[in-house]
Structures are given as C-alpha cells and as structure tokens.
Amino acid sequence: MLKLPGLIDPHVHVREPGQTHKEDWDSVTQAALAGGVTMILAMPNTKPPIFDEATLNLALDAAKGKARCDYAQFLGAGPDNADWDRHKGLPLRAAGLKMYLDSTFGELRLDDMTLWMPHFEKFPKDFPIVLHSESRTMAAGILFAAIYDRPIHIAHVSLKEEILLIKAAKEKGIKVTCEVCPHHLFMVSQLTDEERGKKKEGRDEVRPRLATQEDVDALWQNMDVIDCFATDHAPHTLEEKDSENPPPGFPGLETLLPLLLTAVSEKRLNIEDIIQKSVTNPRKIFNIPEQPETWIEVDESAEYEIKAENQFTRCGWTPFEGWTVKGKVMKVVLRGKTAFEDGKVLAEQGYGRNVRQSCKTSPM
Ligand code: DOR
Ligand code: ZN
Question: Count of domains in the chain?
C-alpha cells in the first residue's frame, strides 16, 4: 500500500448554486474523496456566477452545509466588479480570481482588454489570478502579468505553442504558473486539423478542445514546466452531452489519480511528480494551509476498468469509460478522520472546511 498526502485539485466546477442536477457540493466532494482529493478549489461560473459578496455567500453557505472535503471558492472577474480595493475582505474569503478570456460555459467571458486592466491592478497580489486563456489570448495574459508584475496561473494548458510560451515566460522571470488536465495528457482529438473547431464533437466537447498528438507529446516532454495537475472537473449529464448541442466539459475527479498512477506504472511519470503537482505546488501557488493528519492510501497494483456506474459524480458518465487503469484509492484520512474506505464515503456532509475561513494573509 502506497501512502500519499491528500491531493489538492485547483480546478473544479461544483455547479451549485444553480445547476444541481449536474452536481452539488455533496456529490462533488464525494467524488473528490473517492478520487483521493481532500481539497477542491471551486470555479465561479455557476448560476448565478460568483462575483460579489452576495453570490460568494450563496456558494459558501451551500458548501458549509454539504461539503465532505475541504475547499475554497473562486470569485469571477466581471465587467464591473473590479473595485477589489473597496471590498478588501472579499478576495481574502476566496481562493483567488478567475478570469475567462476565451470561450467557455456560462456568462463570465471578458473580451475587451480594458476590462482586464482594473482586475490586474486591484486584485491582491498574494493570490494568483487564474486565466482561462488559449493560444494568443494566453500570450496577452502573460504580457499583462509582466506589465502589472503580479502572479498569474494559467488553467488547462493544452497546446504545444502554449507550453512553450509558458516555458519562455518563466525563463524571463515572469510570474506565471500553469496546470494541465488529465484529458489533455491522455486523450487525443479524433478530428483532423480542418475539422477541429467546425465539426461537432459530441461527448468529446470540452474547452480547451482535445488537441493533436503533437500537442499531447509536447505536454509530456515539458512535464517540468507544468506546475499542477488539475481535473477541470466539469460535469454535465449524459442526456445533455448526447443532445444536439452538447455543453463542453468532462468529469474528472475520480479518474485523476488512477490515470496518473497508470502513467507511473508505465514509467512515464514518477510518484514525486504527482506529489509535487497535486500537493506541494498548488499549496504554494494558492497560498493554502497544510491539512494536518491527512493522507491517502493507494493500492498501486490493483488493475481495473473505469466505469461510470462506480462513480460518485452525479453526471453519470466519464470520458474514460472502459479504460483499464492500475492504481486504486483504498482509504482517505482527512484531518484525522477516515473520510473514504473500501469504496464508501464516510465523511459526513458539512465535515469539509473552508480553507480561507481563518485566512490571515493581509491584502496587497
Ligand atoms: O469544458 C469546459 N467546461 N470548459 C470551460 O471553460 C467551462 C467548463 C464548464 O463549466 O462546463
Ligand atoms: Zn474549468
């Protein structure tokens, strides 16, 4: 049995408030624990989006009553909520600020760069701004980080040109970190270059889109540039995914560690990579306190097939259905209490703690 620290997933779509038929704070934290994840950072593109005190309270109240693992909630950058200097307490209660600069699910997209400026200026520099930015928009985001001299964290890097750009920016000393999702490391687009972006992708619909083998290879070759693994757990129901216009997104909390451990068994990764990118680095980047007496126990030699019917996520499917993996989460201990064992979630609703509740870091 292999013992690892509890994993941190810095990119999770909880869907509560507003779309609890897809997922809620109860089901998502059960999925997290079953996946060996003891802390999730929740994205703000809910219904309504989380962008001010009232909506932050809405999310945190739901989380307080239902979460079974630890968590923090992101604020979303909108066109007119950049006066963070006047609401100093708010950023301190959040995981950080999420800016959607490219096509996404929900209402939070910011197209005009004049709308980016006040957020870069005013959001406290102790917490990173997380960017959904692809390709050239990412280059613009990195320029903003350089101009405003503040940390940014780039979500779900998927392309060769992106990882190479981030590598170059890091070499210049720009404060940029990044994350990569399992689906961009393990799945390749089924479409040709001409078809991608035009043809419907059905269940494979996800943003950023699945990329080419060359892109996937570039991510693996630049593993040292990748700071974090993040699932971008984005549950939509099977009915929605199989509809005429499927929303983008994959569930991922329960498949993250089995996929990574399978890569370890194939000698494509090592255990230290997992600890660094799923525990140490996210803790540093997001200024997260250590979780005392928290660990997971994993059977590295257990081989099995991934099946949606065995998952805790409410969405009822996985893009990895039928994949054979090697490595199973057997037990999760969270702050001294067994939270998951033998396929059962034991932590109760409300056991999860908001890790920003007792945050003492001073703003700016
Ligand atoms: O595939 C995606 N799903 N990309 C996003 O940017 C949003 C996410 C979601 O919330 O469903
Ligand atoms: Zn996302």
Answer: 1
Atom of ligand 1 nearest to the CA of 236: 11
Question: In terms of residue numbers, what domain contains 30?
Answer: 2-359
**248 CA distance to ligand 1 middle (Å):** 5
Residue 122 lies in a domain: yes
Summarised one tens digit per residue, pLDDT across range 291-329 is 999 999 999 999 999 999 999 999 999 999 999 999 999
Classify residue 98 by burial, with Cβ atoms within 10 Å: 0-12, 13-18, 19+.
buried
DSSP-based three-state secondary structure for 11: strand
CA–centroid distance, residue 75 to ligand 2 (Å): 13
Centre of ligand 1 to C-alpha 103, Å, is 9
For strand 324-334 and strand 295-305, is the pairing parallel, antiparallel, or unpaired?
Answer: antiparallel
- What is the per-residue pLDDT across 8-41, written as a single tens digit (0 to 9) for each? 999 999 999 999 999 999 999 999 999 999 999 9
Ligand 1, CB within 6 Å, residue ranges: 13, 45, 104-105, 132, 206-207, 234, 247-249
